[in-house]
């Protein structure tokens, strides 16, 4: 049975990753800050007879990531998905865009976004690399964003976009460094999706975004390592 680890599994895209892989019979390690306060996730786990386990992980706490690695020692992870992310200390709907605009940047929010969107994915990969290396598929993904594109910047979103551009750099570097172990490393763009982060105007449903990303993940191989691919299977401009 293939296995996947997903961060931010309690809501939004992470919950949908968990739902779809669980429905498909995978072993899912579902990570979120507070599994006790994640009813939708607990419901999925409840139907899966132990195939979906819940793990408390706060990505701003390195010890919590180390504890996850201790819990999972000896368990191969075929697919590792760094999905959790934040727009900043203020969400988009809470005036977050103004808080990261030129001239009104709130630097503590940028620092926070950098810790969660850029540094935490690397910490998780460092902590779990042995689990991935011991698996059959050996694939690592970070859910990035086209808002991190340097070639086609969206305008604004200085903090969020820069953390995603930076995590893309992390991923391309790891693609090089882990290639000799046969590990595939890629950045993903989910599209603009109706979640708490994406908001109600978003054109894509989580189910469609994740169905598309699952195809990308299934097709990923050492030959595609280092790429930045969208939910529709197309490359995203760096
Ligand atoms: N939705 C879009 O349109 C869109 C577009 C491009 C990229 N993305 C990316 O897709 C990923 C998922 O986004 P989403 O739309 O599902 O967002 P979301 O609905 O806001 O969910 C964010 C998830 O990240 C978790 N998280 C945030 N900070 C955390 C921390 N310090 N420790 C542990 N978990 C933390 C949240 O957990 P809590 O519930 O505990 O806060 C939640 O599970 C993110 O990386 C996002 O940047 C989304």
List the ligand species: NADP nicotinamide-adenine-dinucleotide phosphate
Distance between the termini: 34 Å
Total beta strand runs: 7
Average pLDDT metric: 97
Classify the secondary structure makeup into a structural class.
Answer: alpha/beta
**Main sheet record:** 7 strands, parallel
* Low-pLDDT stretches: none
Q: Secondary-structure element sequence?
A: EHEHEHEHEHEHE
Shape, per Cα inertia axes: globular
Roughly what percent helix? 25-40%
Strand order of the largest sheet: 3-2-1-4-5-6-7
> Beta-strand percentage?
5-15%
Radius of gyration (CA) equals 17 Å
SSE layout and pairings?
Elements: E1 3-6, H1 12-23, E2 27-32, H2 39-47, E3 52-56, H3 62-71, E4 79-82, H4 107-133, E5 139-143, H5 158-177, E6 184-189, H6 206-219, E7 228-230
Parallel strand pairs: 1-2, 1-4, 2-3, 4-5, 5-6, 6-7
Helix pairs in contact: 1-2, 1-6, 3-4, 4-5
Bound molecules: NADP nicotinamide-adenine-dinucleotide phosphate.
NADP nicotinamide-adenine-dinucleotide phosphate is lined by residues 8, 10-14, 32-33, 58-60, 83-86, 116, 143, 145, 190, 192-193, 195-198, 202.
Detailed description of the structure:
This protein has 238 residues and is α/β, with parallel strands linked by helices. Helix content is 39%, strand content 14%. It has six helices and seven strands, in the order E-H-E-H-E-H-E-H-E-H-E-H-E. A seven-stranded parallel sheet has the order 3-2-1-4-5-6-7, with helices on both faces. Helix 4 (107-133) packs parallel to helix 5. It is globular, with a radius of gyration of 17 Å. The mean pLDDT is 97. It binds NADP nicotinamide-adenine-dinucleotide phosphate. Residues 8, 10-14, 32-33, 58-60, 83-86, 116, 143, 145, 190, 192-193, 195-198, 202 line the site of NADP nicotinamide-adenine-dinucleotide phosphate.
